[in-house]
Design brief:
373 residues, alpha/beta, TIM Barrel, 13 helices, 16% strand
């Protein structure tokens, strides 16, 4: 890349509260259809998005087949089976096509890998930036891989403690430009759980730009107040209709609501923080705004506390492992635990447990604990 192109790329990726990046999270709402993907991209562009985000799905990178059903806005579903069925409709050409189409609209293409296989495919696409989702914030091997790309990174920080964020940033920040997205891992997340005063504190603690990945239902409150608190980026799920069959469609914003959000963000970007807070205090009530702004102390939100160490990654058995066996590298993986399995060791132990003798029978899918080896 010549110097002129490098300068243009950096300018495209630098955002501030006065010039925020608005991300339409399409995730897997295309359901494997390139035509639906393009329809979503067109609608998101018209609704004011500057960036289109997708997720690169391989079921076995994310969770165990034994995870069971997961309660989601659309009902209790087998998330593994859903991802596996979706995976069958996707290939490298699909992601190449949606990247080209996104960029042909003058929009930034963003994608989330969930493991080393999807990361390898994404790297070949030569994205300008990469997104790491909240559950992968503690996935050491994935963080180390992406840090080596030297690309700007968006890091979501839902269902995490300050120490978890610090560990992730210690891996990523030395190698890359980084923006930290405050997030609440609940679907939908109550607006009053967002504690937006934490944004300037996170920026000061870690020395990085901040933004918000918003899972709340209201199109304006969290996005606009986040800008007042110093957010440079706002990410929100986007759909054509809340009744569409996409996994996240029930909690996503359809075009008219997304447009309403972008107008609110741009209004807040042109106002002072005091003016924005005063506006919503008058429109929605001082008490509600006060609750959304919160204390500024980084802690797990009430709606996501039960997800801690379950939505995040830990080390899980890939088969039934008998007492007395010697652990081999292909016996385990770092996966999301979810609701019915037990969590295992943190991912940074992944390289240390190979060759250890198993002390207890470990059923397939269950977390591998210290007492098991």
């Amino acid at each position: 890349m010549n110097e002129n192109k490098k300068i243009i790329r950096i300018e495209r990726l630098v955002h501030t509260p006065q010039n925020p990046l608005i991300i339409a999270e399409l995730g897997t709402s295309h359901n494997g259809s390139i035509y639906k993907a393009k329809e979503l991209i067109n609608a998101a562009a018209e609704a004011g998005a500057g960036c289109i985000k997708f997720q690169m799905i391989f079921a076995d990178e994310i969770l165990s087949p034994n995870t069971g059903k997961v309660p989601l806005p659309g009902g209790n579903i087998s998330l593994y089976d859903y991802f596996k069925a979706l995976e069958m409709d996707l290939d490298e050409e699909f992601y190449e096509d949606i990247k080209k189409y996104t960029e042909s609209k003058g929009l930034l293409f963003l994608c989330t890998p969930f493991g080393l296989k999807s990361a390898s495919i994404l790297k070949k696409l030569q994205p300008e930036m990469v997104k790491i989702a909240s559950p992968e914030l503690n996935f050491t091997n994935l963080l180390e891989e992406i840090a080596g790309w030297g690309l700007p990174i968006m890091l979501s920080s839902g269902v995490s403690r300050l120490s978890d964020i610090e560990s992730a940033i210690s891996i990523l920040k030395p190698a890359s430009q980084l923006c930290l997205l405050h997030c609440v891992t609940s679907y939908p997340a109550p607006e009053t759980d967002y504690n937006l005063k934490v944004l300037p504190n996170l920026a000061a603690i870690f020395g990085v730009p901040v933004g918000v990945s918003d899972h709340s239902a209201d199109p304006e409150l969290v996005p606009a107040l986040a800008i007042a608190m110093g957010a440079s980026v706002v990410e929100k799920h986007f759909c054509l209709s809340k009744t569409d069959p996409g996994l996240d469609d029930p909690i996503a914003l359809p075009p008219e609501e997304f447009s309403k959000m972008t107008r609110a963000i741009r209004r807040a970007a042109q106002a002072t923080d005091t003016e924005t807070i005063a506006y919503y205090s008058l429109e929605r009530g001082k008490d509600l705004v006060r609750q959304i702004l919160g204390s500024g102390v980084k802690e797990l939100a009430p709606s996501e506390k039960a997800n801690y160490r379950r939505t995040n990654r830990s080390i899980h058995a890939l088969r039934d492992i008998q007492k007395g066996e010697i652990l081999k590298r292909d016996d385990y993986a770092c996966l999301r635990t979810e609701k019915i399995l037990r969590p295992g060791l943190e991912p940074y132990w992944e390289k240390e447990i190979e060759g250890r003798t198993v002390r207890n029978f470990i059923p397939s899918g269950e977390g591998i604990r210290f007492e098991d080896i």
